[in-house]
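User: Sequence recovery, please. Input:
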């Protein structure tokens, strides 16, 4: 298989692991009396200077490092608002309504939606092994659901909608190809757009609660570095290389990481049960199947 494709896989899986650590960090942030809306704002806003330096360095410290064609702004704005603004807000709202277990199950319908959207709008061919990996993946994610968790139509609708918005985000990423917009430059503009949008939302809804101590600020900086500087950049790069369908299936390593970190650092033993262990094995099997299928195709 193409070495570049291996790198794409590695980037997506690494980004999923970093995204999976987000729950651990945000749990401590919420303990600092910081609202969810503020956490989304801070993770974008505090990432801007880091991404600016990295984008500047990536372009050889030239003055043109931040130049962007006006024609790419609509697509960049759509990617920013769907992936890093609307989706997390829908997810947080679903968490409040039905809890993390059911929300994870309904949100992670997005790999199937990515395949469907790619087939409908990009005319991409869907092979049997991709469909099989998708079915295994969704079956594994479904086992994370605990029948005892509360369930209501509003919460389910919000979680499903978050899956749809994230699926559109992944598809847009897979078709966004502009040699003048590097990975760090794209992430920089995504963070700028999202920070501006989230600040407006926080002010309108009166939910802006900035950290009041050094611990709160350090946690917010850590969240920005892990999610926006690390996970987001890697996922964008990996999706551009591996394609939206493969990236969406491989990114299901995120709930596995979230479950493991919750068990190790937050004492969430309830999530570690035979159902979730079998689900984890199925998710990993789906990722292996994708890699094996691509290797066989290359050979």
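Assistant: Recovered sequence (299 residues):
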């Amino acid at each position: 298989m193409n070495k570049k494709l291996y790198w794409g896989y590695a980037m997506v899986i690494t980004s999923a692991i970093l995204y999976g650590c987000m729950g651990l960090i945000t749990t401590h942030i919420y303990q600092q009396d910081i609202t969810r809306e503020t956490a989304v704002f801070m993770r974008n806003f505090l990432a801007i200077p880091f991404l600016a330096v990295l984008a500047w360095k990536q372009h050889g410290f030239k003055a043109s490092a931040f130049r962007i064609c006006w024609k790419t702004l609509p697509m960049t704005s759509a990617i920013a608002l769907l992936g890093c603004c609307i989706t997390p807000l829908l997810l947080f709202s679903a968490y409040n309504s039905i809890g993390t277990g059911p929300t994870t199950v309904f949100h992670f319908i997005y790999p199937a939606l990515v395949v469907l959207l790619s087939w409908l709008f990009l005319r991409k061919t869907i092979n049997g092994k991709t469909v099989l990996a998708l079915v295994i993946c969704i079956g594994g994610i479904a086992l994370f659901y605990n029948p005892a968790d509360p369930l209501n139509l509003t919460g389910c609708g919000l979680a499903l909608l978050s899956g749809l918005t994230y699926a559109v985000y992944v598809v847009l990423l897979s078709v966004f190809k502009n040699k003048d917009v590097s990975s760090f430059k794209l992430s920089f503009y995504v963070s700028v757009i999202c920070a501006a949008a989230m600040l407006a939302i926080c002010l309108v809804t009166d939910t802006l609660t900035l950290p009041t101590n050094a611990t709160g600020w350090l946690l917010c900086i850590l969240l920005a570095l892990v999610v926006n500087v690390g996970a987001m950049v890697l996922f964008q790069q990996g999706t551009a290389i591996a394609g939206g369908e493969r990236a969406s299936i491989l990114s299901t390593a995120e709930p596995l990481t979230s479950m493991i970190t919750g068990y190790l650092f937050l004492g969430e033993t309830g999530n570690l049960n035979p159902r979730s262990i079998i689900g984890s094995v199925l998710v990993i099997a789906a990722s292996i199947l994708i890699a094996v299928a691509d290797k066989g195709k290359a050979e």
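The chain has a mean pLDDT of 85.
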